[in-house]
Amino acid sequence: MTLIQETKNNEFMENLCFSVLELDGVRFxxxxxxxxxxxxxxxxxxxxxxxxxxxxxxxxxxxALEISMRKDFDSSLGEVDYIASRRKNVLMVSIPINNNLLLxxxxxxxxxxxxxxxxSRIIS
Length: 124
Known about the structure:
The chain has four helices and five strands. The chain is an alpha+beta fold. A five-stranded antiparallel beta sheet has the order 2-1-5-4-3, with helices on both faces. It is globular and about 40 Å long.
Protein backbone atom coordinates (compact mmCIF):
# COMPACT_ATOMS: atom_id res chain seq x y z
CA MET A 1 0.00 0.00 0.00
CA THR A 2 1.39 3.38 -0.96
CA LEU A 3 1.62 6.25 1.50
CA ILE A 4 -1.26 8.03 -0.24
CA GLN A 5 -3.48 4.93 -0.07
CA GLU A 6 -2.57 4.39 3.59
CA THR A 7 -3.35 8.03 4.42
CA LYS A 8 -6.74 7.78 2.68
CA ASN A 9 -7.44 4.50 4.49
CA ASN A 10 -6.57 6.07 7.87
CA GLU A 11 -8.79 9.08 7.14
CA PHE A 12 -11.63 6.75 6.12
CA MET A 13 -11.27 4.75 9.36
CA GLU A 14 -11.24 7.89 11.51
CA ASN A 15 -14.27 9.34 9.70
CA LEU A 16 -16.11 6.04 10.05
CA CYS A 17 -15.40 5.97 13.80
CA PHE A 18 -16.67 9.54 14.22
CA SER A 19 -19.79 8.79 12.18
CA VAL A 20 -20.72 5.61 14.09
CA LEU A 21 -20.07 7.36 17.41
CA GLU A 22 -22.99 9.68 16.60
CA LEU A 23 -25.50 6.80 16.79
CA ASP A 24 -27.70 6.78 19.90
CA GLY A 25 -26.26 4.73 22.71
CA VAL A 26 -22.80 4.21 21.20
CA ARG A 27 -20.08 4.52 23.83
CA PHE A 28 -16.95 3.64 21.87
CA UNK A 29 -15.90 2.92 18.30
CA UNK A 30 -12.52 1.53 17.32
CA UNK A 31 -10.82 0.10 14.27
CA UNK A 32 -8.60 -2.89 14.99
CA UNK A 33 -6.07 -4.35 12.57
CA UNK A 34 -5.71 -8.09 11.99
CA UNK A 35 -3.02 -8.25 14.70
CA UNK A 36 -5.42 -6.89 17.29
CA UNK A 37 -3.87 -3.41 17.42
CA UNK A 38 -6.13 -0.41 17.83
CA UNK A 39 -5.61 1.76 14.73
CA UNK A 40 -8.26 4.43 15.28
CA UNK A 41 -10.77 5.01 18.08
CA UNK A 42 -13.17 7.42 19.68
CA UNK A 43 -14.94 7.36 23.05
CA UNK A 44 -18.15 9.25 23.59
CA UNK A 45 -17.40 12.32 25.71
CA UNK A 46 -17.76 11.82 29.47
CA UNK A 47 -17.67 8.02 29.12
CA UNK A 48 -15.47 6.03 31.45
CA UNK A 49 -14.20 2.76 29.96
CA UNK A 50 -15.35 -0.41 31.73
CA UNK A 51 -11.87 -1.95 31.49
CA UNK A 52 -8.28 -0.84 31.94
CA UNK A 53 -6.20 -0.09 28.87
CA UNK A 54 -4.32 -3.39 29.28
CA UNK A 55 -7.55 -5.41 29.40
CA UNK A 56 -8.93 -3.52 26.41
CA UNK A 57 -5.79 -4.43 24.42
CA UNK A 58 -6.33 -8.08 25.34
CA UNK A 59 -9.96 -7.81 24.23
CA UNK A 60 -8.93 -6.30 20.87
CA UNK A 61 -6.52 -9.18 20.24
CA UNK A 62 -9.17 -11.72 21.21
CA UNK A 63 -11.73 -10.18 18.85
CA ALA A 64 -9.26 -10.08 15.95
CA LEU A 65 -8.45 -13.74 16.61
CA GLU A 66 -12.13 -14.66 16.78
CA ILE A 67 -12.86 -13.10 13.39
CA SER A 68 -9.75 -14.72 11.93
CA MET A 69 -10.80 -18.16 13.18
CA ARG A 70 -14.30 -17.78 11.77
CA LYS A 71 -12.85 -17.14 8.29
CA ASP A 72 -12.12 -20.89 8.16
CA PHE A 73 -15.82 -21.42 7.46
CA ASP A 74 -16.31 -18.64 4.89
CA SER A 75 -16.26 -21.02 1.93
CA SER A 76 -19.14 -23.13 3.26
CA LEU A 77 -21.14 -20.68 5.43
CA GLY A 78 -20.35 -17.35 3.80
CA GLU A 79 -18.43 -14.39 5.18
CA VAL A 80 -19.20 -13.04 8.65
CA ASP A 81 -21.32 -9.87 8.52
CA TYR A 82 -20.85 -9.12 12.21
CA ILE A 83 -20.48 -10.72 15.62
CA ALA A 84 -22.50 -9.34 18.51
CA SER A 85 -22.48 -10.07 22.20
CA ARG A 86 -24.90 -8.54 24.65
CA ARG A 87 -23.85 -8.38 28.27
CA LYS A 88 -25.50 -6.87 31.29
CA ASN A 89 -23.63 -3.57 30.86
CA VAL A 90 -22.81 -3.37 27.18
CA LEU A 91 -23.54 -4.48 23.63
CA MET A 92 -20.38 -5.27 21.64
CA VAL A 93 -20.53 -5.46 17.84
CA SER A 94 -17.55 -6.48 15.68
CA ILE A 95 -17.79 -5.82 11.94
CA PRO A 96 -15.03 -7.01 9.59
CA ILE A 97 -14.05 -4.36 7.05
CA ASN A 98 -11.34 -5.45 4.60
CA ASN A 99 -8.38 -6.49 6.78
CA ASN A 100 -9.64 -4.57 9.81
CA LEU A 101 -12.34 -4.97 12.41
CA LEU A 102 -14.70 -2.22 13.48
CA LEU A 103 -15.55 -2.61 17.15
CA UNK A 104 -18.58 -0.81 18.53
CA UNK A 105 -19.48 -0.67 22.21
CA UNK A 106 -23.03 0.51 22.90
CA UNK A 107 -25.65 0.52 25.63
CA UNK A 108 -27.04 -2.97 26.29
CA UNK A 109 -30.47 -2.06 24.92
CA UNK A 110 -28.95 -1.07 21.55
CA UNK A 111 -29.48 -2.95 18.30
CA UNK A 112 -26.59 -4.80 16.67
CA UNK A 113 -28.60 -5.02 13.46
CA UNK A 114 -29.11 -1.23 13.33
CA UNK A 115 -25.41 -0.63 13.93
CA UNK A 116 -24.47 -3.11 11.20
CA UNK A 117 -27.00 -1.63 8.75
CA UNK A 118 -25.68 1.89 9.39
CA UNK A 119 -22.06 0.84 8.86
CA SER A 120 -23.00 -1.13 5.73
CA ARG A 121 -24.60 1.95 4.18
CA ILE A 122 -21.48 4.01 4.85
CA ILE A 123 -18.96 1.55 3.45
CA SER A 124 -20.93 0.58 0.34
